Structure formats: C-alpha cells, structure tokens
Amino acid sequence: MSSLTKEEYEIRKLFCKEIETLSRSELEEIYRILRRENGEFSENSNGIFFDVGSLPASVFEALCKFVEFCKSNAKDLEERNKIINEMVIKPEH
C-alpha cells in the first residue's frame, strides 16, 4: 500500500473512533468483511487486530460502507424509540 495523504489519514483516524461505538455483533461483521475482502489482520486471545492505515482502499471502503450502515440504523432506531416513547407518554384519546 502506498503512503496515505493527510486527508486519507484523517479519514481513517475518524473511522477508528467510529468503530469504538459499534456493538459486538457489528464488530463481528467487521471481522467477516476483513476475511471476505482479504484484509490483513492478526488474532490472539485478546481479539482481532488490524492496521487501518495499511488496508487497501477497496477493503477500507467496504468497512466504511458498513459503519455508515450501522450509524444509519442506530439513528433510525433512536428516532423510532423517540416516537414510541412519545406515544406512551401522551396517549391519544
């Protein structure tokens, strides 16, 4: 992999922050994407590890698409829960 531009580095740095918020099942899907896309990773008793900076662009793009999907789902769920809570608090007669 060629060296990253400053912009690419910042995007990948932000990605690292975003995956910290994922659930266990979402993190397991990150692992499956890495395997499917032939991304390099290591595994030991502490978990699965990969170098975001050395991932090929195609693998990183697949991971980013999944993280965006997770964020969108979380936002939709939050909005649905808000609507449900408002209905419970203020039932219509």
Please, could you describe this protein's structure?
Helices cover 65% and strands 6% of the residues. The chain is mainly α and 93 residues long. The chain has helices spanning 6-19, 24-36, 57-89, and strands at 42-44, 47-49. Strands 1-2 form a two-stranded antiparallel sheet. It has three helices and two strands; from the N terminus they run ααββα. A hairpin with a 2-residue loop joins strand 1 (42-44) and strand 2 (47-49). It is elongated, with a radius of gyration of 18 Å. The protein has one domain (6-89). This is NET domain-containing protein. Residues 10-68 form the NET domain.
Provide the fold topology:
Layout: H1 6-19, H2 24-36, E1 42-44, E2 47-49, H3 57-89
Antiparallel strand pairs: 1-2
Helix pairs in contact: 2-3
